[in-house]
Amino acid sequence: MLPKDPAMLLSLINMKLRDQYDSLESLCDDLDVSQDEVIQTLKKIDYIYDEQLNQFK
To answer: Rg of the chain's alpha carbons, rounded to an integer?
Structure first.
């Protein structure tokens, strides 16, 4: 289960993207979470996914 707090979610997602996954899509598929939900939650704190860097900035 992913954290509901956007700042905690950001930290966890970026760590997993850096250490384990080559894309947000593969992370979400593996964890069985909605990619759109992750994107929308992090957009609330002004972070967007940078596909080239494979992280939220």
So the answer is: 10
Backbone angles phi, psi at 56, to 5 degrees: -90, 135
In tens, the pLDDT along 28-50 reads: 999 999 999 999 999 999 999 99
Q: What is the pTM of this model?
A: 0.93
55 phi and psi angles, rounded to 5 deg? -160, 160
CA distances 20 to 14, 31, 44, 45, Å, are 10, 12, 25, 24
Q: Which secondary-structure segment (H or E) carries 42?
A: helix 35-43
